[in-house]
């Protein structure tokens, strides 16, 4: 068992997108671990500033980049975390396992396992509080199998399979096995025994979890794994192991406060829940649609949108590219999926900079992981303090420094229909 020391973080995490990172950070904080989020591969200066924390979450935008780039970036993050002296490592991916048959989840797990000399690891994307459960090795989104849920139409990672065992074996080089809920249900003793038995012949141990209690039980059985992988749900049960290693759980009180300044809502997620949230928000707030065709011809531009925003900025306007599957398919056919996603993300990034510089915006609500990555990278925000939760997995976060910015980075399918209203109130207090 790896002992906690005062000077080094216990847990080193790599998250494959930015909303996923804030999601994980919020659950670690809720579990009592003092946590910092660093955006992008940390510079030596950032590394020097990581002090007095139990967990470090490095957010990278590696979910949809070429496989080899994702592997190299993740290994570079691991090297940083190892240099900090972390005792345990966590690879965080999406609770809907967003990936393609090639990756990037499997290849990144393989590379991390190899670097850490870990012969086996756990795979558990479940987050029951948000409707993601794993049963008999199959991933569900509420009452639908993943491949029958709206995730089948995702613009970048359409999910066509629900079997985690099959997906892991397709993406990775190792063998996978499912550890069913009947075993988890029997408690930590039975689960530990099953893990020890199955890890002899398998590399990826796919864990069922149907409830938060299952995640707590799983958390009690992970001490022999140097590397764990999953959604943010795995963090729910880690407090006990941290304590067993000599750590003190802390009720983390946040210094993150609302900022009385304009708010801008940017939505690049096309997820089913985001579509509802956009529809709800447009009933009472000014909305500008990003039109990919017009962006391509230049008929719509960052300048033209900023001119419009200037007249609406005191009413927390929304700029949205959120579209239904048939429109996305048409855009993909006309321009290519990668090109159009890149153009929209770039536009959101440029809008965020212009809104901050020209319109004094200091509160950003952003929907979508890739979109959030583009916005955070454009703003050059290199770390976050984690504030209170707006919805499960979506905390308010704040940049350090004299002119802080508040952000809510919302994973595509997280939050209820009124999420944008709640975020507006939390970030700016109005
Ligand atoms: N109208 C559109 N046509 C084609 N692509 C679009 C359109 N609107 C948005 N996109 C692209 O779809 C992608 C949506 O991914 P993003 O990660 O931002 O959202 P998400 O997958 O719903 O969120 P999360 O990953 O947090 O669940 C982005 O790359 C975005 O640029
Ligand atoms: O796990 C999730 O669903 C989210 O944190 C996420 O990664 C969405 O991009």
From TrEMBL:
Protein name in the entry: 3-oxo-tetronate kinase
Enzyme class: transferase
Reactions that this protein is recorded to catalyse: 3-dehydro-D-erythronate + ATP = 3-dehydro-4-O-phospho-D-erythronate + ADP + H(+); 3-dehydro-L-erythronate + ATP = 3-dehydro-4-O-phospho-L-erythronate + ADP + H(+)
Pfam families in UniProt: NBD_C, SBD_N
Stated role: Catalyzes the ATP-dependent phosphorylation of 3-oxo-tetronate to 3-oxo-tetronate 4-phosphate.
Enzyme Commission number(s) from the entry: 2.7.1.217
Protein origin, superkingdom: Bacteria
Keywords from the named record: ATP-binding, Carbohydrate metabolism, Kinase, Nucleotide-binding, Transferase
Record-annotated Four-carbon acid sugar kinase nucleotide binding domain positions: 264-420
Family the UniProt entry places it in: Belongs to the four-carbon acid sugar kinase family.
GO function term, MF aspect, one: kinase activity
